Amino acid sequence: MLLHGTLRLLPRPRRIYLSNIYKLSTNQSTCKESSGYKQNDFKKTRTSNYKHIGIGFGLVVGFASLVAINRKLSLVNKESKKLDKCNKKYTRKEVSKHNTLENGVWVIYQGKVYDITDFVERHPGGSGAIMMGAGGDVSPFWETYVFHKKPEVQNLLETYLIGELDESATDSISESSQDPYATDPKRSPHLIVLSDKPFNAETPAKLLIENQITPTEIFFVRNHLPVPEVDIEDYKLEICIGSDGDEDNLEMIAEYTYEELKSLFKPHTVESIIQCSGNRRKELKKVREIKGLDWGIGAFGNAKWTGVRLIDILDRHNVNEASSKFKHLQMGGLDCDMSGKCYSASISSDIAFDAKSEVLLAYEMNGEPLTRDHGFPIRLIAPGVTGARNVKWLSKLILSNEESTGHWQRNDYKSFSPSVDMFTVDYSKSISIQEMPVQSAICDPQSGDKLRISSGKIDEANKEAILSIPVNGYAWSGGGKLILRVDVSIDNGATWQTASLEQEPDFDKRNKTWHWTRWKTNIELPVEEFIERKKDKVEICCRAVDSAYNSQPERAETIWNVRGVVNNCWHRVELYVEVD
Ligand SMILES: Nc1nc2c(c(=O)[nH]1)N[C@H]1C(S)=C(S)[C@@H](COP(=O)(O)O)O[C@H]1N2
Ligand SMILES: [Mo]
Question: Is 50 labeled as catalytic in the residue annotation?
Fold first, then answer.
């Protein structure tokens, strides 16, 4: 006999995490000289010691790291002349002119003006998002990344103080024009927001599993910078050859407008997953701290992408032997920071240039033009490859023998041994993530859901009843590998039951399956154990097997890595059982 459990949704906690590792060594508040900072003074402090600190990116890591390097900088600050300029006043207009490295980088915080040029210059993760606040008020950022309010970060900022904001001046610039994220698009309220600026949000697991094709509005968004505003009339995609990867040494072989891309080539559609390398980082964070967004299982989505095959374009320009001539395809995006650095990444030539490659320059997602958050007007789709290489707002392709030199290619999106930490990590020692390992997760029920059993319905006759709970989830593997099987267990892997797959495995497509495979099963719980209060919780776990017979590791501890990427351990959900 079957009893019915009721599942109730519990609110999901959100948190922004900051390491406590960095401690401020001195707290010295002096007014530094604002003009003519001497670059040479600092050269000596730019040592390789810093490379270990540069994990992560942007303001979050920026100011945390800033605290870490403070000891050296404060020495330098001591050397700078203590001019009595603390009560010097600057207008917003004056401050706004200091938004580049050449002119100096000034910011306003709580009515005071700071010259942080020295810091930007040696920002371990690159200047990146820290330049977003340049020339303006950093409060909006600090509201998002609340850890900046910690005293050690604020004390360190004081060492860059150059004066006060002159609010009486009439040249005030509106706050919104200061905020580079002000023109970001509106988003669905269903998304679970992990950070506003830049915008990062995941799809709630139960919504995710409802459709084979993830609706665009609830498809997860992973942005590193503000969303660029692209005028379609001005848009051009450049394709260049640059064997040594040197930006100044490129030979342009083609340039296409949006309309040309759509009209000159045959459209091609692929149904492909995008999965962020950081998907499921949250579980790794429970093992040990990691800097980075707290992704659950929803940095994952399955869409239909339509566009031009890269190899069709290369054929037109007779570079169809690209695979033997070049090692990498570099891709540049239109999302840039105020120092002019733009998002970039690369994929390897076998993925990009193979005669059967389905790498696309996509202009449609789910039958509609791309939305701004997902890369309008053109994005690269590299099926089977990690999300970070699916470059949005694509502006440039370079056929090269070098990997992209961008931060996200060289100093992020790599994995390491669990024994490597933020002080010992050497990014040059690991390769950039391309294909992702086999993955699966339970989407419904979710951890924290409650099952209610009404004991009134239990009597001697049905004491041996079981509670049958439907379980749904997704599975997928990188490099186009097929999902062969998904196993589900309620006894931590001692016994398994095999789930039914939505699509039967198609052996002919075993290295070309880009989409996910949804699966479902019913798990059966013996009611008696709960009635007698031997148990009030149950853990369900799953793991998938792909067509190379690869499977998922059991425990998160064994694959913990300093960036919290490529987590594919058995996925577990814990349900509470209540007996009335
Ligand atoms: N230009 C550009 N492309 C980008 C990014 C970005 O910040 N800028 N983020 C990358 C990352 S890390 C991921 S996971 C995917 C996310 O794609 P989505 O936002 O459409 O889900 O886009 C990738 N492409
Ligand atoms: Mo990502």
Answer: no
Atom of ligand 1 nearest to the CA of 374: 20
CA 370, CA 378: separation in Å to the nearest integer?
7
Q: Is position 571 annotated as part of the catalytic site?
A: no
User: What mean pLDDT comes out for the span 235-240?
Assistant: 96
Nearest one of 202, 334, 222, 312 to 268, comparing CA atoms: 312
pLDDT of residue 526: 82
DSSP H or E stretch at residue 87 = none
Q: What is the pTM of this model?
A: 0.75
Q: Which-ligand-closest: CA of 395?
A: 1
114 is catalytic: no
Residue 359 reports pLDDT greater than 70? yes
pLDDT at residue 20 greater than cutoff 80: no
Is 328 known to be catalytic?
A: no
**CB under 5 Å of ion ligand 2: residues:** 222, 276, 387-388
* Mean pLDDT, range 9-19, rounded to an integer: 31
* Rounded-to-integer distance, Cα 483 and Cα 498, Å: 13
Residues 152 and 25: their CA atoms lie apart, in Å, by 9
Q: What is the mean pLDDT of residues 282-295?
A: 95
What's the CA gap between 354 and 342, in Å, rounded?
Answer: 27
Residue 64, helix vs strand vs coil: helix
**Antiparallel, parallel or unpaired: β 466-476 and 2-3:** parallel
258/338 Cα distance (integer angstroms): 26
Q: Span 220-246, mean pLDDT?
A: 91
3-state secondary structure 524-580: EEEHHHHHCCCCCEEEEEEEEEECCCCECCCCHHHCCCCCCCCCCCCEEEEEEEEEC
User: Is residue 460 very low, low, confident or very high in pLDDT (cuts 50, 70, 90)?
Assistant: low
Tell me the C-alpha to C-alpha distance, in Å, between residue 68 and each of 26, 60, 73, 146, 547. Answer: 11, 13, 10, 18, 46
Which residue among 187, 188, 222 has the greatest number of ligand 1 atoms within 8 angstroms of its CB, and so is best to mutate? 222
Structure tokens belonging to residue 180: 């580079």
218 CB near ligand 1 (under 6 Å): no
CA 61, distance to chain mean position in Å, is: 14
**Six-digit token string for 186:** 């509106």
Our answer on whether the CB atom of 392 is closer than 6 Å to any ligand 1 atom is yes
On the question of pLDDT at 81 being above 50, the answer is no
Tell me the C-alpha to C-alpha distance, in Å, between residue 257 and each of 229, 269, 371, 377, 426: 16, 20, 18, 10, 40
Beta bridge partners of 333: 394
CA separation for the pair 379, 310 (Å, rounded): 12
Tokens of 482: 């097929």
Residue appearing with tokens 């990867």: 245
The answer to whether residue 22 is catalytic is no
Max CA distance (Å), the chain: 89
Give the Å distance between the CA of 345 and the centre of ligand 2.
Answer: 11
Q: Three-state secondary structure along 492-529?
A: CCCCCEECEECCCCCHHHCCCCCCCEEEEEEEEEEHHH
Asked if residue 332 has its Cβ within 6 Å of ligand 1, the reply is no
Give CA–CA dist 196/343, Å, rounded.
18
The DSSP call for residue 149 is: G
From the CA of 378, the nearest ligand is 1
